[in-house]
# Entry
Amino acid sequence: MDGALTGAADALPRSFFARPVLDVARDLLGCVVQHRSEQGTVAVRLTEVEAYAGEDDPGSHAFRGRTPRTEVMFGPAGHAYVYFSYGMHWCTNLVCGTEGSASAVLLRAGEVVEGVELARSRRVAARRDVDLARGPARLAQALGLARAQDGADVCAGGPLQVLPGAPVGDDRVAWGPRVGVAGAGAPTPWRAWVDGEPTVSPYRAAAVRARPPRRPPTA
# Structure
């Protein structure tokens, strides 16, 4: 599908993102995230996402309120929240909902549909094309997203935008718990994916750290 995508005129409008986070998450499946850079253009058709509900969600970065890191999550909708995870890699979210709600959708996985060769050069460890954007860190790396894209307006026709793709029917959408989320937010079934898609990442429950045993008081 290289070269088959169009341009900024087809980008999803802000009204698409200014809706409840679960509605946006579900409708993002099948949409295409496109990033144009000096190296070229890469586009990924989304096959897996996760919803996060801001200050109402213990699994969200914004659960404890505004910080310099999470400021972009509080709105307006239609901006990218790109964060560094575990000191190793970048992950990308799309801010949605009403301004101030801090809800966002994590882009977990997808299929590279444009710029495959460029994505391969960025993901040299991937043995198969199906793995180029299979996981949130891999997806961001394949697209070439990092700190410079944090806060980018995906509705303004800039280098980073989201295009409508082929609709995904409800019979193909599956829901389950989010990956790596522990505590009160762990059982929330807010991960959505296209059932049967090989690019969907494997599910991993959060590792619960055991507390060290308490030492007896010394005399």
Remarks:
- The chain has four helices and eight strands.
- Confidence is low (pLDDT under 50) at residues 208-212.
- The helical segments are 14-17, 21-28, 116-122, 136-143.
